[in-house]
Structure formats: structure tokens, C-alpha cells
Amino acid sequence: MNDRGNPGLAEGFSIFAVDATWPESRQVTGHGHNRATGDAHVNLWFGSPHFDPQVEHVSVFSASSGNAEASEALEREFEIYLHPGEEPPASLPASEPVTITTDGKPLKFELWRNSSNRYWVARGHIKNTEVILSGSEIEPGELSLVRVSDLTSFSNPFASLTHDLCAAIRDAEEEK
What we know:
2 helices
């Protein structure tokens, strides 16, 4: 709870990104913060600056646990990557485990692949943050994710809004 009586950010929420060795564009493509519930989410894009899905790319969606945006993000990724032009399945298909390095430690994610191309979707939980990954032309097990609190190094068409979200994250960390 902050000094204005609002709950602030959800306890333990973190933003995750592909580590600094990523050679291509790094962009903030969306975010939100519900001041009433503290739920927050951030979507980051790593790849072509023109969002070309045919080249190596990864999308990293971080959401506070229990945030409905995480389920919606997973559904969108299934639609885009696993079932383009089709209705997504009524329930999640069977996944396979994949280990992704997160903050320097191996962490198990659920992985779904599209058998007709190199697209994939993965989901993992890191403390109180749900992370949805999607990508192509790179194996998810080759990724290394890191926690970030400063998004100023990312291209950002929503700069002023992201500044406010980053300030809320820093405030929440200082209150701990």
C-alpha cells in the first residue's frame, strides 16, 4: 500500500527480458498497471525493429501472478504462433518441459511447438511473476532471461507511460 492508499504493484512482480547479449532490436510493445488491484504486465520484443516474424525473435510477457492479462497473452500467442488463422484449442495441448536460464539459474518452463514451422510458446513462473515467451528461429533453451527494472535502453513508442510504470516498480522495491 502506498501513501495515497492505493495497493501499488503486486507483491513480488518483476519484469524479465532476454539478457544484454541479444544482438537485435529491443522494444517495449505494451504494458499496463491496474491501480486498484496492483496487477501489472509488460511485453517486450527482441528481434527485427519492424516486427518481422520471419526472422529470429522472442517476445517476453511478464505479468503479476493471477493477473488475467497473462491468460489472455497465452491465448494470443497460441493464436498467432501455434494456430495461425485457426481458432485456438479449447484447452491447452500437452506441453513438453524446457529449461531456460533465469537470473543465472535453470528454471523449468512449459513449451508448446508448432509442428509445421519453427514457432514456439513457453510459460514459466518466477516467484510472483508469470512469464509467457514466444518466438521463432531460436531454441527457447538457448535463452537467458534477466530481471530488469529500467526500460530506458529499450526502444519505446510509449515512453511517458513506461516511465510511470518503471517509477512504480522502483517505488515498490524501495518499500520492501
